[in-house]
Amino acid sequence: MKAWVATGEGGRLVGDADPAISVLDHGFTVADGIFETLKVVDGVPFALTRHLRRLCRSAEMMVLPPPDPDRVRFAIHQVLAANEPLERGRLRITYTAGIAPLGSDRGQAPPSLVVALAATTAWPSTTTAITVPWSRNERSPLVGVKSTSYAENVMALRFAHDRGGSEAVFADTRGRLSEGTGSNVFVVVDGELLTPSTSSGCLAGITRELVLEWSSAVERDLPIEVLAMAQEVFLTSSTRDVHPVARIDDCALVAPGPVTAEVAAAFRTRAKGDLDP
Protein backbone atom coordinates (compact mmCIF):
# COMPACT_ATOMS: atom_id res chain seq x y z
CA MET A 1 0.00 0.00 0.00
CA LYS A 2 1.09 3.57 -0.71
CA ALA A 3 0.91 6.16 2.08
CA TRP A 4 1.27 9.94 1.98
CA VAL A 5 3.80 11.59 4.29
CA ALA A 6 4.61 15.25 4.93
CA THR A 7 7.11 16.57 7.45
CA GLY A 8 6.99 20.15 6.19
CA GLU A 9 5.26 22.07 3.45
CA GLY A 10 5.54 19.32 0.85
CA GLY A 11 4.40 15.75 0.87
CA ARG A 12 5.05 12.52 -1.01
CA LEU A 13 3.76 9.06 -1.58
CA VAL A 14 5.82 6.26 -0.05
CA GLY A 15 5.55 2.51 0.26
CA ASP A 16 4.22 1.35 3.60
CA ALA A 17 7.60 -0.24 4.41
CA ASP A 18 9.72 2.74 3.26
CA PRO A 19 11.51 4.96 5.82
CA ALA A 20 9.53 8.18 5.98
CA ILE A 21 9.39 9.61 9.55
CA SER A 22 12.36 10.65 11.67
CA VAL A 23 13.24 8.56 14.70
CA LEU A 24 13.10 11.87 16.59
CA ASP A 25 9.49 12.58 15.64
CA HIS A 26 7.57 13.38 18.85
CA GLY A 27 4.75 11.15 17.70
CA PHE A 28 7.18 8.23 17.78
CA THR A 29 9.19 9.09 20.90
CA VAL A 30 6.40 10.20 23.25
CA ALA A 31 3.14 9.64 21.32
CA ASP A 32 2.63 13.39 20.99
CA GLY A 33 0.04 13.34 18.24
CA ILE A 34 -3.55 12.84 17.18
CA PHE A 35 -5.29 10.68 14.62
CA GLU A 36 -8.54 9.80 12.91
CA THR A 37 -9.69 6.44 11.53
CA LEU A 38 -12.28 6.35 8.75
CA LYS A 39 -13.92 3.45 6.99
CA VAL A 40 -13.62 3.43 3.20
CA VAL A 41 -16.54 1.97 1.26
CA ASP A 42 -16.05 1.37 -2.48
CA GLY A 43 -13.19 3.87 -2.53
CA VAL A 44 -14.98 6.65 -0.61
CA PRO A 45 -14.13 7.67 2.99
CA PHE A 46 -17.20 7.89 5.21
CA ALA A 47 -18.09 11.03 7.21
CA LEU A 48 -14.87 12.77 6.18
CA THR A 49 -16.03 16.28 7.09
CA ARG A 50 -16.90 15.24 10.64
CA HIS A 51 -13.58 13.44 11.05
CA LEU A 52 -11.63 16.48 9.82
CA ARG A 53 -13.58 18.70 12.20
CA ARG A 54 -12.64 16.46 15.11
CA LEU A 55 -9.00 16.30 13.95
CA CYS A 56 -8.84 20.10 14.10
CA ARG A 57 -10.54 20.13 17.51
CA SER A 58 -8.05 17.57 18.85
CA ALA A 59 -5.14 19.64 17.51
CA GLU A 60 -6.46 22.74 19.28
CA MET A 61 -6.81 20.85 22.57
CA MET A 62 -3.26 19.46 22.18
CA VAL A 63 -1.96 22.97 21.37
CA LEU A 64 -0.69 21.78 17.99
CA PRO A 65 -0.65 24.02 14.90
CA PRO A 66 -4.01 23.52 13.19
CA PRO A 67 -3.97 21.05 10.29
CA ASP A 68 -5.18 22.39 6.95
CA PRO A 69 -8.32 20.37 6.08
CA ASP A 70 -7.81 20.99 2.35
CA ARG A 71 -4.28 19.65 2.57
CA VAL A 72 -5.51 16.56 4.38
CA ARG A 73 -8.21 16.04 1.76
CA PHE A 74 -5.55 16.31 -0.95
CA ALA A 75 -3.39 13.71 0.81
CA ILE A 76 -6.38 11.38 1.12
CA HIS A 77 -7.13 11.77 -2.58
CA GLN A 78 -3.51 10.96 -3.43
CA VAL A 79 -3.55 7.81 -1.29
CA LEU A 80 -6.86 6.54 -2.64
CA ALA A 81 -5.77 7.20 -6.22
CA ALA A 82 -2.38 5.51 -5.76
CA ASN A 83 -3.78 2.25 -4.38
CA GLU A 84 -6.00 -0.42 -5.85
CA PRO A 85 -9.69 0.24 -5.12
CA LEU A 86 -10.83 -1.45 -1.91
CA GLU A 87 -14.27 -2.83 -1.34
CA ARG A 88 -13.77 -2.18 2.36
CA GLY A 89 -10.83 -0.33 3.87
CA ARG A 90 -9.51 1.60 6.84
CA LEU A 91 -8.01 5.05 6.29
CA ARG A 92 -5.88 6.56 9.02
CA ILE A 93 -4.84 10.20 9.34
CA THR A 94 -1.99 10.76 11.82
CA TYR A 95 -0.80 14.24 12.79
CA THR A 96 2.11 14.65 15.21
CA ALA A 97 4.18 17.42 16.77
CA GLY A 98 7.10 16.65 14.43
CA ILE A 99 10.81 16.38 15.19
CA ALA A 100 11.70 17.30 18.77
CA PRO A 101 14.34 16.69 21.45
CA LEU A 102 14.40 13.32 23.19
CA GLY A 103 12.05 14.15 26.04
CA SER A 104 8.70 15.78 26.64
CA ASP A 105 9.61 19.23 25.32
CA ARG A 106 8.47 19.98 21.81
CA GLY A 107 10.85 21.28 19.16
CA GLN A 108 10.44 23.96 16.51
CA ALA A 109 9.91 21.63 13.54
CA PRO A 110 6.61 21.63 11.66
CA PRO A 111 4.08 18.89 12.40
CA SER A 112 4.18 15.58 10.55
CA LEU A 113 1.18 14.32 8.61
CA VAL A 114 0.68 10.73 7.49
CA VAL A 115 -2.29 9.27 5.61
CA ALA A 116 -2.28 5.48 5.32
CA LEU A 117 -4.71 2.91 3.95
CA ALA A 118 -5.28 -0.77 4.67
CA ALA A 119 -7.79 -3.37 3.55
CA THR A 120 -10.17 -4.67 6.20
CA THR A 121 -12.75 -7.41 6.54
CA ALA A 122 -16.23 -7.09 7.98
CA TRP A 123 -16.70 -7.67 11.71
CA PRO A 124 -18.67 -10.76 12.79
CA SER A 125 -22.41 -10.18 13.11
CA THR A 126 -22.15 -10.02 16.92
CA THR A 127 -19.32 -9.46 19.36
CA THR A 128 -18.26 -9.93 22.97
CA ALA A 129 -16.83 -7.48 25.49
CA ILE A 130 -14.95 -7.66 28.77
CA THR A 131 -14.86 -5.03 31.52
CA VAL A 132 -11.32 -4.27 32.67
CA PRO A 133 -9.93 -3.52 36.15
CA TRP A 134 -8.45 -0.17 35.10
CA SER A 135 -10.21 3.19 34.98
CA ARG A 136 -10.61 5.83 32.31
CA ASN A 137 -9.45 9.13 33.83
CA GLU A 138 -12.23 11.60 33.14
CA ARG A 139 -9.98 14.41 34.47
CA SER A 140 -7.13 13.71 32.05
CA PRO A 141 -5.95 16.59 29.84
CA LEU A 142 -6.48 14.18 26.92
CA VAL A 143 -10.23 13.82 27.47
CA GLY A 144 -11.96 14.59 24.19
CA VAL A 145 -8.72 14.19 22.21
CA LYS A 146 -8.22 11.31 19.79
CA SER A 147 -4.62 10.99 20.87
CA THR A 148 -1.99 8.56 19.61
CA SER A 149 -1.27 7.71 23.28
CA TYR A 150 -2.90 4.29 23.11
CA ALA A 151 -0.79 2.11 25.41
CA GLU A 152 -3.61 1.84 27.97
CA ASN A 153 -5.92 0.63 25.22
CA VAL A 154 -3.37 -1.92 24.02
CA MET A 155 -3.10 -3.40 27.51
CA ALA A 156 -6.86 -3.39 28.05
CA LEU A 157 -7.56 -5.02 24.69
CA ARG A 158 -5.03 -7.74 25.37
CA PHE A 159 -6.77 -8.36 28.73
CA ALA A 160 -10.09 -8.72 26.89
CA HIS A 161 -8.66 -10.97 24.17
CA ASP A 162 -7.16 -13.28 26.79
CA ARG A 163 -10.69 -13.70 28.17
CA GLY A 164 -12.43 -14.26 24.85
CA GLY A 165 -13.61 -10.72 24.19
CA SER A 166 -13.15 -8.60 21.08
CA GLU A 167 -13.35 -5.31 23.01
CA ALA A 168 -12.50 -4.04 26.48
CA VAL A 169 -14.80 -1.67 28.35
CA PHE A 170 -13.69 0.92 30.92
CA ALA A 171 -15.40 2.56 33.85
CA ASP A 172 -14.21 6.03 34.85
CA THR A 173 -12.61 6.82 38.23
CA ARG A 174 -16.08 7.34 39.74
CA GLY A 175 -17.34 3.94 38.65
CA ARG A 176 -19.40 5.22 35.72
CA LEU A 177 -19.56 3.41 32.38
CA SER A 178 -17.18 5.18 29.99
CA GLU A 179 -16.11 3.54 26.70
CA GLY A 180 -14.25 0.77 24.92
CA THR A 181 -10.68 0.95 23.68
CA GLY A 182 -11.83 2.04 20.24
CA SER A 183 -15.59 2.17 20.57
CA ASN A 184 -18.50 3.79 22.34
CA VAL A 185 -21.06 1.80 24.31
CA PHE A 186 -24.86 1.96 24.09
CA VAL A 187 -27.25 0.11 26.39
CA VAL A 188 -30.99 -0.53 26.34
CA VAL A 189 -32.56 -0.40 29.80
CA ASP A 190 -36.34 -0.76 30.15
CA GLY A 191 -36.76 0.14 26.50
CA GLU A 192 -34.67 3.32 26.71
CA LEU A 193 -31.53 3.67 24.58
CA LEU A 194 -28.69 5.26 26.57
CA THR A 195 -24.99 6.05 26.13
CA PRO A 196 -22.50 7.52 28.62
CA SER A 197 -22.10 11.28 28.64
CA THR A 198 -18.71 12.70 27.70
CA SER A 199 -18.24 13.67 31.37
CA SER A 200 -17.25 9.98 31.86
CA GLY A 201 -14.09 10.61 29.82
CA CYS A 202 -15.35 8.81 26.72
CA LEU A 203 -14.39 10.10 23.30
CA ALA A 204 -17.21 11.65 21.31
CA GLY A 205 -17.07 9.10 18.50
CA ILE A 206 -18.28 10.01 15.02
CA THR A 207 -20.56 6.95 14.78
CA ARG A 208 -21.79 7.68 18.32
CA GLU A 209 -22.61 11.20 17.19
CA LEU A 210 -24.58 9.93 14.19
CA VAL A 211 -26.51 7.38 16.26
CA LEU A 212 -27.47 10.14 18.70
CA GLU A 213 -28.74 12.20 15.75
CA TRP A 214 -30.47 9.34 13.93
CA SER A 215 -32.17 7.56 16.84
CA SER A 216 -33.89 8.17 20.16
CA ALA A 217 -30.66 7.59 22.12
CA VAL A 218 -29.81 9.98 24.95
CA GLU A 219 -26.64 10.68 26.93
CA ARG A 220 -26.67 9.92 30.63
CA ASP A 221 -24.29 9.23 33.51
CA LEU A 222 -24.50 5.46 33.99
CA PRO A 223 -22.94 3.19 36.62
CA ILE A 224 -20.75 0.43 35.21
CA GLU A 225 -23.25 -2.01 36.77
CA VAL A 226 -25.76 -0.99 34.11
CA LEU A 227 -24.11 -3.54 31.82
CA ALA A 228 -25.45 -6.35 34.01
CA MET A 229 -28.95 -4.79 33.99
CA ALA A 230 -29.20 -3.98 30.27
CA GLN A 231 -31.49 -5.91 27.97
CA GLU A 232 -29.32 -4.99 24.96
CA VAL A 233 -25.79 -3.64 24.46
CA PHE A 234 -24.09 -2.50 21.29
CA LEU A 235 -20.81 -0.86 20.37
CA THR A 236 -20.25 1.86 17.81
CA SER A 237 -17.10 2.85 15.95
CA SER A 238 -16.01 3.93 12.48
CA THR A 239 -15.27 0.34 11.46
CA ARG A 240 -17.91 -1.49 13.54
CA ASP A 241 -20.85 0.83 12.75
CA VAL A 242 -23.58 -0.50 15.09
CA HIS A 243 -22.24 -3.79 16.49
CA PRO A 244 -24.49 -5.94 18.74
CA VAL A 245 -22.90 -7.43 21.87
CA ALA A 246 -23.88 -11.04 22.55
CA ARG A 247 -21.92 -11.37 25.77
CA ILE A 248 -20.31 -8.98 28.21
CA ASP A 249 -18.20 -10.68 30.87
CA ASP A 250 -20.33 -13.69 31.90
CA CYS A 251 -23.65 -12.10 30.94
CA ALA A 252 -25.30 -13.38 27.74
CA LEU A 253 -27.49 -11.00 25.76
CA VAL A 254 -29.94 -11.23 22.88
CA ALA A 255 -27.99 -9.88 19.91
CA PRO A 256 -29.26 -8.09 18.09
CA GLY A 257 -32.22 -7.18 20.26
CA PRO A 258 -35.13 -5.29 18.72
CA VAL A 259 -33.84 -1.81 19.55
CA THR A 260 -30.33 -2.59 18.31
CA ALA A 261 -31.69 -4.10 15.09
CA GLU A 262 -33.79 -0.99 14.44
CA VAL A 263 -30.86 1.38 15.09
CA ALA A 264 -28.50 -0.71 12.92
CA ALA A 265 -30.96 -0.80 10.02
CA ALA A 266 -31.56 2.94 10.20
CA PHE A 267 -27.83 3.60 10.34
CA ARG A 268 -27.18 1.45 7.27
CA THR A 269 -29.90 3.21 5.31
CA ARG A 270 -28.83 6.73 6.28
CA ALA A 271 -25.12 6.02 5.76
CA LYS A 272 -25.69 4.45 2.36
CA GLY A 273 -27.68 7.50 1.25
CA ASP A 274 -25.06 10.03 2.39
CA LEU A 275 -21.36 9.14 2.63
CA ASP A 276 -20.51 12.51 4.20
CA PRO A 277 -23.39 13.17 6.59
Describe this structure in words.
The structure is a single chain. This protein has 277 residues and is α+β, with helices and mostly antiparallel strands. The strands form 2 sheets. Strands 7, 8, 9, 10, 11, 12, 13, 14 and 15 form a 9-stranded mixed beta sheet that branches. Strand 13 and strand 14 form a beta hairpin. Helices cover 26% and strands 31% of the residues. It is globular and about 55 Å long. The chain contains 7 helices and 15 strands. The mean pLDDT is 96.
Task: Please give a quick description of this structure.
The chain has 277 residues and is of the alpha+beta class. The protein has helices spanning 26-29, 48-61, 69-82, 151-162, 206-214, 226-229, 258-273; strands at 2-6, 12-15, 33-41, 44-45, 88-96, 112-119, 127-136, 167-172, 177-180, 184-189, 192-196, 218-220, 232-237, 241-248, 251-252.
Q: Quick one: overall form?
A: globular
Q: Rounded to an integer, what's the Rg over CA atoms?
A: 19 Å
Strand-pairing-aware structural class: alpha+beta
How many strands, which pairing sense, and closed or not: the largest β-sheet? Answer: 9 strands, mixed
Task: Enumerate how many helices there are, as a single number.
Answer: 7
Strand content: 25-35%
Return the string of H and E elements: EEHEEHHEEEHEEEEHEHEEEH
